[in-house]
Specification:
alpha+beta, Aminopeptidase, 2 domains, six-stranded mixed beta sheet, two-stranded antiparallel ribbon, 10 helices, 21% strand
Length: 260
Amino acid sequence: MEEGEDQRHDVIVRRLDPADPLLSELGEREPVNPPTPATSLERRIAEDRRVFVVQHPARPEAVLSVVWVALTHGVPARLDDVLRTDLPVLDPLAADTAVFHSIWKVQERRAGRGSGRDLIEGAADALRAELPNLRTFVTLSPVPGLRAWVEASGNRHVPGGAELAVLGARYLTTLDDVGRPIDPVARFHLSNGARLWRVNPDGDPSALGVERSFGLLANYRYLPEDRAANRNLLADGTVPVGEQVTAVLDSPGPDDDRHA
């Protein structure tokens, strides 16, 4: 097995070298946060960035899924804080946080291969081995169903600030009839053992971010010792949340009669 590869189940989780021509193709196909002149592909593959893919061992040219990672000091709340081209490059050894800021499926996996859990756990294990100073593993995730959910409730104005945080937290902790989070991104991360750690009302003010969720983003946190307990909570009908989300859920919402 080559350096940078991790065999998990019957797939390979591999870190891409910055010179790998596959990166240009993946950048062109990026659906979550497409590169723009202000958020170039070159910045996404700098010294303080990592890209991991899941590949089929019999067909290493076939990428099943990909995750883009930013190494940071502290947990960012805004997409600009990980994607802007003019951000200074951080010494990876000074980073304490790994931010998974784009995770997507390149092609449908075959026969159960290449699950999201393979990708997240493989990337996190490789990062811990390379950079022992990393203490926090989080996402900076879109909330693609929020706008439709808010509008379906009859709310026709554009929420922001504290109101948006409350709406986002409520939406992301709402389960469907079979006990799954109604938001697809939340369903992915929570079913893989993450915790809904923070909601960020001003996380993505781009046109795409506003279209998806009025600009709100979410941080999901992955802790190895927390994953099984989080999955058990979800199986029992409770979304595991962090302190910030708990506080937001306990605050008055737009339709509450309570006062702060």
